[in-house]
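Let us work through a complete example step by step.
Step 1: write down the sequence.
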Amino acid sequence: MTFQYDFDELRDRRCSESVKWRKYDENVLPMWVADMDFLSPEPVIRALRERVEHGFFGYPDCESDDPDQPFKLKQIITERMARLYGWQIQSEEIVFIPGVVTAFNLACHALVKPAEAVVIQTPVYPPILGAAEETGVQGQEMELALNPDGSYEIDWDAFEGCLTDRSKMFLLCNPHNPVWEGFSQRRAVAHG
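Step 2: predict the structure and record it as tokens.
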């Protein structure tokens, strides 16, 4: 099924319960959180409408691999990983987490002991900056190299120099967001 989607239609989000648009004054263009500024696609709206009209809002069987069950997400994920990346995973290896921040904090809890460390590169998504403290482990930061064109790359010597016997986990995040760079710089000034 194909459908047309209009990415040029702008709508005022300040009255739509959007923390992104309500946090700052009107002269600020907020680009700090993943909140879409376009209407959701019609197939998504239709699926939600059908679910609402169903009238029952119980707990879905998220763990089912039965293809006859309406919730087949694990099956879809395993097929997609195999088709696109040649990665063979089993559905029981998939664990649903309610968000990326929860996911990396749980990973820190599961994989790093209090005397051990998680390595992060700055600038980075701001919640990653607090992952070590939030989970009671040590944090090791290393700064990415800023190129003249504004892009970042790993300084491999600095990365290797950052690693110690305590380094047990590395949180990787795409740094290409000027808001994160400013946040990381303000944090560095505040701490040092």
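Step 3: interpret the result. The domain at 100-191 is CATH 3.40.640.10 (Aspartate Aminotransferase; domain 2).
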